[in-house]
């Protein structure tokens, strides 16, 4: 019976770091919209002795997610166990005066995040339930943000999607915890150190969150015994006053 | 220049009590999906010397909300001031195991609430901004619930919609507060005493929230001077342990 | 049977505004360390037709609080009802690097606040319980601050005292709510406009909280029916981004 | 230059598990009121190849804490580094109607907790600051409880002490984080599986928190790189609905 980890939002940066960390123990399935993103990561994990499959997927689309699941089942058998499922899909971040936002922009931010989280949880949880006797409890982690706790000016869409995902994480933890599934929500509070953020805040060393740090903490969450689950955790650089 | 109050979700119960309270001072516009709901309330307010117009509206629909606004402008003139806008639309509440929820059910709960709150705020705020020199600051209030703070088992859709509305209320408060608009979010924590809840919890007197109490507190929020705005408030019966 | 209101921390500013507001309905007992502070306020309230008694009291001292209660009972009879008790005593605010704080400074900040809140609640609650059939439920309000929610750098003593008072307010609400006593906690989030703060932030009009606004909201809390109590409320100027 | 870990509240149960975990890497100093508690733990750690010193200490007493520090300095040299300091001292838990609590009981609960946390932080932080270039950032962890977030009926003293400690943890994180010290607060939400709790809740397996789980998570916090510190974390059994 196969045990795998699945990472949605396996782009460069945090997603890639999480994928590499879990690939040290499990075959990993990597989801991202673009094959372009997935290929170098799959190659890199294989090069380091891991097992990885990239499947271009739009997690906010039910048909796309369904077809991805079919592919996973045909690869690993229908009785596979998902040991870890990480929802790391970014919400669209656009700061804009509220009255200048179009409904399309507003829902274009909320739908992928909340619809994506819903689809991902519905697709993966059925394969997590029977893993609850394993050494490490099956673990579903949602990557959140400061905006999951605080709605800032001009960020109503982003905040609504992050608040919404947090609500779902809480509901799932309370429903699936007693069934042995570990559901966590991580509040990433700071700029993550990636190619994209190269230009920001260079003055203070280590003031941007290293993706590796996030990945190691996600792994730790996965290893917690069921008598000592963490549901919510914040991660921020030492330099942050917050 | 006309000054009005507008209440979305002007059904029986809380919406009606709010409408009656604000009708003591302003002409009130009452929105609800069904004319059936609006008529007796409009009649009752007029009977008591107030001024009320009921406009059947689906606030989650942009065309419906647009047409409602056109009607308001033609009634009160295009330079009307909205002194108070109350978003009191109920989210669908259905407790159900997560894996038995269909995407339609899930989004059928989130869309009306979050889309409705978005449309309502976008439609009313432009008519609130120039009221910021009035005796009472223009006030936009969102009715929330316990589920805005806590995602319970089986309630992920309901909680996501309430968390999402709270996120929007916070963002709007931070953006429009400095422009003199008072944005508040009320956490109604308990069963409201209405026709629908007649059968529940009859043993302890006053253990259900009286709509009149909510209405009086909403009115108080409206009267707060801009140096002392309240953004978030909880309302619950004395008997609640919470 | 007499009904009175009692305000601890009846200094100039917020305490005085609260006293004047409640004196419109009840005889008020004003507590403050210095007679000097109390006299002009007592005079002013009487001048406006109210009834007021000032009793110099250190609420953090049990003997002082006991003697004050004896005086109140001899004035109003032993079966008096305390309709409203407001704990408005300031905590010492001193921002200082943690390693430079002496234990005396640290506890000199916590003790008056937390000990004072404890003494005040123990002294007043016994006279509130039998008032639970009155038109307005007996009400115990604690004035809190932003530091009740957030411990800032250099403010550990101030924050610990404000967090501690908030903890007590919650515990008392859960214990005495079901007995008909309304216990509230107000988070005052901003600079209050008093003699002392005259020099601060003069550029934006109304950017400092008017004591009158706080007083009116406290009065509103007192008038809430028991089916619709508010436990926690924030109060801040419109200009605050928070 | 010596590097050590110090654990206050090194009683059986959580304290002992933490001590054993950190003793795998550092010499550990164990503080507890009674030598009786310390001796078997010291012996056990040594037996497993670790290094441990037990020093009977009342952390709420400044002279006692001072004398303990002198002893540590004479053992490890005055330029020692405290790599990890864990404040795991229990607050007195007594559920009691508020009006039956004596001031002595109330402050007998708050003082040891808050005074103890203050003394411990003041004593250890000066030896943590120069460790900020080490592989693992110097780490100060406070063990909290559900009562740090919620004041329950009859538990005002316990809650005030836990809220107060949390306030201090936040203030210290904001002050010492930028100096490279990792300050964390753990919310232990459930019954811990110890000798004392043997009789409780036996029906559901693993429904009590294993001390080992707490210890492993504390160790993980210690290993987080400074770009990805966690300040607050909850730990609860999977079976908890919370």
UniProtKB/TrEMBL annotation, chains A, B, C, D:
Transmembrane segments: none annotated. It comes from the Eukaryota. The lineage of its organism: Eukaryota, Fungi, Dikarya, Ascomycota, Pezizomycotina. This is NAD(P)-binding protein. It holds the Pfam family adh_short. SUPFAM superfamilies: NAD(P)-binding Rossmann-fold domains. InterPro entries: NAD(P)-bd_dom_sf, SDR_fam.
